[in-house]
Design goal:
3 domains, alpha/beta, transferase, 10 helices, seven-stranded mixed sheet, methyltransferase, tRNA_MeTrfase_Gcd14, binds S-adenosylmethionine, Vcp-like ATPase, Chain A, domain 2
Length: 326
C-alpha cells in the first residue's frame, strides 16, 4: 500500500477510503476477520479483501453499500484525523506550483502538524525527491511517523521531533524549497536560509493567517537576502456539474412551448441523469427525446480565508558555484 503508487486489488492490511458520498468519507484499515459499522449497516472486511479498488461493497443484509477507494493524498486530506489545523488542496496545489515542486526535489517543512501537507508533497517529489519534516510536539511527531510508516512513505519522508526555532533544521545547503507553517515563521527564516541550496534558486513559502505576521515575515526575508517577496491568498470557488434540458432550435423557431422545468420527480431525474450522463439525452413525460446539455455552474459560496502565502526566492550570490542543470 503506497500513497504515491497505485495497485488494483485490496489486500489484508491495506488502508482504504470508505466513500459514502462526496461529503462523507473515512479511512479504514482492512483486517481479515474484522467488521466495519456505519449507519448503513455492518460490512465484513473479509468481503473487501480481493475486491478491486473502486468497488462497491454491500452490507451483511444486502441493502446498504459503500465504495472502497484507493487512498491518495487528496483524499487523505479530507479524512486525516485532525491533530492541528491543516492545509487543504487549494493552498497545497498553489504552494506546490509556486515552489516548483516535482519529482527529485528536496524539501523541508515545519511543523508537520497532522501531516496533510506532507502527504501531498511526498507524492509530488517521489520517487527520487525527499521531504524532511520537523515537529516539536512529541505526540504529533510520533503519530505522523506512524502514519508515514503505515502509508509506506518512509523512502520519501523523514520526520524529526525538533524545535526548529531553537535548534534550526540541522541541514545545510540541501533543500530546493522550504515551507513554514509555524506561529512565528520569521524566527525560522535564518535556519531556512542555511538549509537552502546556494548553487541554484532556493524557494520559500510561509503560511500565516494574519497580515501582521506576513509583514514580520517579509521583513525577516528581506533582512536575510531573499528577494521577489510576494504574498497571495488562495480563495477557492467550487463548480457543480449539472445536466439541463437543451431545447431543440427548430421547435423554438416554430414557436412550440419548451419546458425548462425538470420533467421527472427528483429521484427519477437523478437516476436518468446517472444513466444518461454519457448519452446526453433524456426522455420527457410523453416519452419523446429531450436533448440534455452538461453544464458547470459556480456555487454561491467562496471558501473563506485560510491563510496568506508569502513566497520569496534566495538567488545564488556572486562567487557561489551555480548548478547549470536546473
Ligand atoms: N501544515 C500542517 C498540516 O497540513 O497538517 C499543519 C501544521 S500546524 C498548523 C503547525 C505545527 O507546527 C503544530 O503541530 C506545532 O506543534 C508545530 N510547531 C510550532 N512551533 C514549532 C517549532 N518551533 N518547531 C517545530 N514545530 C513547531
Amino acid at each position: 500500500m503506497m500513497f504515491h503508487e497505485y495497485k488494483n486489488v485490496i489486500e489484508d492490511g491495506d488502508t482504504v477510503i470508505v466513500y459514502l458520498n462526496h461529503n462523507s468519507m473515512s479511512p479504514l484499515k482492512v483486517e481479515a476477520g474484522q467488521v466495519y459499522n456505519n449507519r448503513f449497516g455492518t460490512f465484513k472486511h473479509d468481503d473487501m479483501i480481493g475486491l478491486k479498488y473502486g468497488s462497491k461493497v454491500v452490507n451483511k443484509d444486502g441493502k446498504g453499500f459503500v465504495f472502497l477507494l484507493h487512498p491518495t493524498p487528496a483524499l487523505w486530506t479530507q479524512v486525516v484525523p485532525h491533530r492541528t489545523q491543516i492545509l487543504y488542496l487549494p493552498d497545497i496545489s498553489f504552494i506546490s506550483l509556486y515552489l516548483d515542486l516535482r519529482p527529485g526535489k528536496i524539501m523541508i517543512e515545519s511543523g508537520t502538524g497532522s501531516g496533510s501537507f506532507s502527504h501531498s508533497i511526498a507524492r509530488t517529489i517521489a520517487p527520487t525527491g525527499h521531504l524532511y519534516t520537523f515537529e516539536y510536539h512529541e505526540i504529533r511527531a510520533q503519530t505522523a511517523r506512524k502514519e508515514f510508516i503505515e502509508h509506506n512513505l518512509t523512502d520519501v519522508v523523514t520526520i524529526e521531533h525538533r524545535d526548529v526555532i531553537a535548534n534550526g533544521f540541522g541541514k545545510r545547503n540541501i533543500a530546493d524549497a522550504v515551507f513554514l507553517d509555524l506561529p512565528a515563521p520569521w524566527d525560522a527564516v535564518a535556519a531556512a536560509k542555511d538549509a537552502l541550496r546556494k548553487d541554484t534558486i532556493g524557494r520559500i513559502c510561509c503560511f500565516s493567517p494574519c497580515i501582521e505576521q506576513v509583514q514580520r515575515t517579509a521583513l525577516a526575508l528581506d533582512e536575510h537576502g531573499f528577494s521577489e517577496i510576494r504574498m497571495y491568498e488562495s480563495l477557492a470557488k467550487d463548480y457543480e456539474i449539472r445536466n439541463i434540458p437543451q431545447p431543440d432550435i427548430d421547435e423554438v423557431i416554430d414557436g412550440q412551448r419548451v419546458s425548462f422545468k425538470p420533467v421527472k420527480s427528483d429521484k427519477k431525474k437523478r437516476k436518468l441523469e446517472n444513466d444518461s450522463a454519457c448519452s446526453g439525452t433524456d426522455t420527457d413525460a410523453n416519452g419523446s427525446t429531450v436533448k440534455e446539455l452538461t453544464v458547470t455552474k459556480p456555487t454561491d459560496v467562496v471558501r473563506g480565508h485560510t491563510s496568506y502565502l508569502t513566497f520569496a526566492i534566495l538567488a545564488p550570490e556572486e562567487g557561489d558555484d551555480i548548478d547549470m542543470s536546473e
